[in-house]
Amino acid sequence: MLIPPLSLIEEHSGGIDLQEFVTSGDTAVEDALKRRAGLLPSHRLLDIGCGCGKIARPLTGYLTGRGRYDGIDVTRTVIGWCSENYKPFPNFQFHHADIRSKRYNPQGTVSASTYIFPFSDDEFDIVFLGSVFTHMLPDEVDHYVREIARVLKPGGTCLATFFLLNSTSNNNVSAGLTTPNFAHRFGNVGCRIEVLDVPEAAIAYQEYIVREIYTRHRLSINAINYGEWGRGRFIPHWQDEVWSGKAVR
Fold first, then answer.
1. Which CATH class name applies to 6-161+218-246?
2. Angstrom distance (rounded) from CA 152 to CA 148
3. Out of 78, 86, 152, 227, which could bridge 156 as a Cys pair, Cβ 3.0 to 4.6 Å?
4. Between the CA of residue 144 and those of 31, 48, 109, 186, what are the distances in Å?
5. What is the spatial distance between Cα 57 and Cα 78, in angstroms, rounded to a whole number?
6. Are strands 124-129 and 219-225 parallel, antiparallel or unpaired?
7. Contact 13, 25 (CB under 8 A)
8. Which residues touch 59 (CB under 8 Å, ≥6 apart)?
9. Domain coordinates in residue numbering, the chain
10. What's phi and psi for 75, nearest 5 deg?
């Protein structure tokens, strides 16, 4: 069933339990990737911050031999578990990014602001990042968006989740109504953070900053679906979904 140990799920999937690991993975694949992103069995998908395979598991019965899944994560333990347990699926590959992370990879040798994705240009039909940019600093986000634009095929789609700050969520942050509460400013770069001494624990970006980054790297934002964390209830995701695409040449 490709279900990792509960300890891995709790540590690397946001503290959720086994049932939610299965349900949330199934929902992300069926609703976000298949229905809204148009994922086909023959497509190539890149899952950045793949963890212990939450969306990889339900895709094993969908992606054909022509299709392919590649997952990247900074935690060697989860990449090791996935690489071993997905051996019966040769079109599923997992890659350890030895990026420094205070929590998950403190001995990492590479900065996220310089890490080059181990893929050629224009390889992927869809790139997915679930709660990755919510833990990355501005120069790191900028670099990752540039790399996404490089590896995404013309006409391809990227779905990334953020905590976005705009008039509504800024007001709710000021009133102490959000979770996370993002009580602290982070420099002068349009960000707010949850934990002063660990900015990467949770970070929110002013929406205009995110739009500027995407525009700079020639990714067009096609839609933003605002999550419930700062504005009221929205299903299926509590964070904000930024849908973007790469123009066909």
1. alpha beta
2. 6
3. 152
4. 25, 10, 17, 20
5. 13
6. unpaired
7. no
8. 29, 33, 45, 69, 92
9. 6-161+218-246
10. -95, 115
Radius of gyration of the chain (CA): 17
* Other beta carbons within 10 Å of 87: 9
Phi/psi for 206 (5° steps) reads -60, 135
Closest to 14 in 3D by CA, of 239, 249, 248, 188: 239
Sheet of 124-129, strand order? 92-96, 68-73, 44-48, 124-129, 152-162, 240-246, 219-225
Tokens describing residue 144: 């990752």
Cα 111 to Cα 71: distance, rounded to the nearest angstrom: 19
The pTM score is 0.94
Label residue 236 by pLDDT band (50, 70, 90).
very low
pLDDT tens for residues 18-55?
888 899 999 999 999 999 999 999 999 999 999 999 99
* Cα 190–Cα 193–Cα 196 angle in degrees, nearest 5: 125
